[in-house]
Amino acid sequence: MSWENAAPLVPLRALANPLRIRIVSLLTGAPMSATEVAAELGIAHGSASYHLKRLTAAGFLRRSDGASGAGAAAGGAAGRGQPPKRYEYDPDSARRLDRSGGSGPLLEALFTDLRRRAAAGRQVTSADAEVWLPRETWAEVCALTERAVRLVHDKAGPPRTGDGVHVSFTAMLLELGGGPGGPGESGESGESRAPGGAPVGPRGERG
Question: Do 109 and 82 contact (CB within 8 A), yes or no?
């Protein structure tokens, strides 16, 4: 593969903002314009447009009308009578994340947004555990979680349509190590997922 044809890495730090996490989550369900994003999230149009441009330039989003290149990433100049530019989450970004800078800033942004979600929502279920599991059981848990992540991503739809339920779904699996032949308990081995099911941890590659 030539350098010119290689897909660029997606900088993880570009998502390290609670508002950008919300935007990527929103655009996992349906393509939306800056005007629609601003109305749904209750933010200024200029703010929505700015974050859409930055997320597109970083590689998390893509133009849903098939436009590409610098003009699409920058938003371009909308002609009169032209349909609004819409953006959607690019699932391929999950395979191209640049984790060299670490996931700390993104996790901090995610935790900030989780506080907002917890205050706004009714808890349906939650689970937390730090335990030792047989390797085969851990593999089964990872596979089941992966299925749940894919189901949520694939079935996500436009806001406020049909009988759709507005939900918050967060999945984070961390292999802490400390076992025979495993890494130490330094917290450097594990997996977490960004909106859209994108793995964001140091070992977030799909197996």
Answer: no
Reduced to 3 states (helix: H, G, I; strand: E, B; else coil), residue 33 is strand
Task: Work out the pLDDT band at 190, boundaries 50, 70, 90.
Answer: very low
Answer left, alpha or beta for residue 81, where phi above 0 means left and psi between -120 and 50 means alpha: left
Quick one: which H or E segment has residue 172?
A: strand 172-173
Contacts of 129 (CB under 8 A, 6+ apart): none
Amino acid sitting at position 42: G
Cα–Cα distance, 11 to 33 (Å, whole number): 23
How much of the chain, in percent, has pLDDT values that exceed 70?
Answer: 75
CA gap 194, 186 in Å, rounded: 22
Residue-by-residue DSSP string for 136-167 = HHHHHHHHHHHHHHHHHHHH---TT-TT----
- For 18-159, strand residue ranges (E) read 32-33, 61-63, 86-89, 97-98
- pLDDT tens-digit map of 144-187: 999 999 999 999 999 998 999 999 999 999 999 765 555 544 44
CA distance 190 to 201: 6
Report the length, in residues, of the chain: 207
Query: Hey, what amino acid is at 24?
Result: V
Rounded to an integer, what is the distance from CA 113 to the centroid of its chain?
A: 13
Distance CA 155, CA 16 (A): 25
CA dist., res. 176 & res. 189, Å (int): 6
pTM above the 0.85 mark?
no
